[in-house]
């Protein structure tokens, strides 16, 4: 069984990616929301380029957080409804690794496209090119954190009545520190200050989330099918 674990994880990952490519509404919806929500901010803030540039870090991160939330309620829900979650748990693969494989698939189909769309949005908001590396590095860490915490929260509310309403209430407070550190690093890069400590805090947050979130998500999956 020990030698079958990597192949089982890859099979789950390949299955989720194939389904995402076949039904790309979640990925397309998240990217469109990310870009359109960011594009609406200039209409609310006014025509001042300086104000828009100063608000850009927070705009990008808030839009990324909200866009990553959109497909979370279906992360495990479809498997619970059609019974495939029971079959996955019967393979003998630890529930935490099943959850981790699906979280990775969520990042590849949601977090990675948001990362690619962040550059055009940042240019549209008037961010300087010198801060683009900090933006992409921070969003790389941040979208991984969002997927891990989102996957954990999605498993906790799995099967609950009005789970789609409870999900944002769980995710938003837990991801707020990542949003603060990411936006602070980007703001520091724009103003010429040191942005390294904020990215280091993001990295520490991610290092803690990698082992803890899949374990909690696995416990949630086990509880949902019992």
Automatic annotation (TrEMBL):
One of its GO terms (molecular function) is heme transmembrane transporter activity. It is a multi-pass membrane protein. Keywords: Cell inner membrane, Cell membrane, Cytochrome c-type biogenesis, Membrane, Transmembrane, Transmembrane helix, Transport. Pfam families: CcmB. GO terms for cellular component: plasma membrane. It is found in: Cell inner membrane. InterPro entries: Cyt_c_biogenesis_CcmB, Cyt_c_CcmB_bac. Belongs to the CcmB/CycW/HelB family. Required for the export of heme to the periplasm for the biogenesis of c-type cytochromes. This is Heme exporter protein B. The gene is ccmB.
């Amino acid at each position: 069984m020990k030698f079958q674990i990597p192949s089982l994880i890859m099979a789950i990952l390949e299955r989720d990616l194939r389904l995402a490519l076949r039904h790309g509404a979640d990925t397309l919806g998240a990217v469109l929301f990310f870009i359109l929500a960011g594009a609406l901010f200039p209409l609310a803030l006014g025509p001042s380029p300086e104000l828009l540039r100063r608000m850009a870090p927070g705009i990008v991160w808030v839009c990324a957080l909200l866009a990553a939330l959109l497909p979370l309620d279906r992360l495990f829900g479809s498997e619970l409804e059609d019974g495939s979650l029971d079959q996955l748990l019967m393979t003998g693969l630890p529930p935490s690794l099943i959850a981790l494989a699906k979280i990775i698939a969520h990042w590849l189909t949601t977090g990675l496209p948001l990362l690619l769309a962040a550059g055009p949005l940042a240019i549209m908001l008037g961010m300087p090119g010198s801060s683009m590396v900090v933006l992409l590095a921070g969003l790389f860490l941040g979208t991984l954190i969002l997927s891990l915490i989102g996957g954990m929260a999605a498993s906790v509310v799995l099967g609950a009545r009005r789970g789609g309403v409870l999900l944002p209430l769980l995710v938003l407070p837990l991801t707020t520190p990542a949003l603060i550190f990411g936006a602070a690093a980007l703001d520091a890069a724009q103003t010429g200050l040191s942005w390294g400590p904020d990215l280091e805090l993001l990295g520490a947050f991610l290092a803690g989330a990698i082992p803890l979130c899949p374990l909690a998500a696995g416990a949630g999956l086990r509880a949902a099918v019992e």
